[in-house]
């Protein structure tokens, strides 16, 4: 199984809008892919967030779906200046 870790910085003044957008992304991803995301924030920098998606069995389809969902979610407009979503894709070692 694969896991995706997505990290980025949120504009402090847009925190509530970002939180609402992330929850919409989670709902859409779960409906479309059957995977429930988790949200974390960096312990020493609360403006840095990470979405975690685990148990992905179709990584290509998942990443395409995630990118499409995020593009229409409003989340990109809540990111800090010069910040972008960074996606890391990991696979369980066997």
Write a concise synopsis of the structure shown.
This protein has 94 residues and is α+β, with helices and mostly antiparallel strands. The protein contains two helices and four strands; from the N terminus they run βαββαβ. A four-stranded antiparallel β-sheet has the order 2-3-1-4, with helices on one face.
Question: How would you portray this structure in words?
Answer:
- The protein has a single domain (2-91), classed as Alpha-Beta Plaits.
- The chain is an alpha+beta fold and 94 residues long.
- It is globular.
- The protein has helices spanning 15-33, 59-71; strands at 2-9, 38-42, 45-56, 86-91.
- It has a four-stranded antiparallel sheet, covered by helices on one side.
- Helix content is 34%, strand content 33%.
Fill in the keyword field for this structure:
94 residues; alpha+beta; Alpha-Beta Plaits; 4 strands
């Amino acid at each position: 199984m694969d896991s995706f870790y997505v990290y980025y910085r949120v504009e402090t003044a847009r925190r509530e809008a970002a939180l609402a957008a992330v929850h919409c992304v989670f709902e859409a991803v779960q409906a479309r892919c059957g995977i429930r995301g988790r949200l974390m924030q960096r312990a020493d920098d609360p403006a840095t967030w990470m979405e975690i998606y685990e148990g992905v069995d179709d990584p290509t389809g998942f990443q395409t779906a995630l990118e499409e969902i995020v593009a229409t979610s409003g989340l990109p407009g809540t990111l800090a200046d010069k910040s972008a979503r960074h996606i890391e894709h990991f696979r369980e070692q066997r």
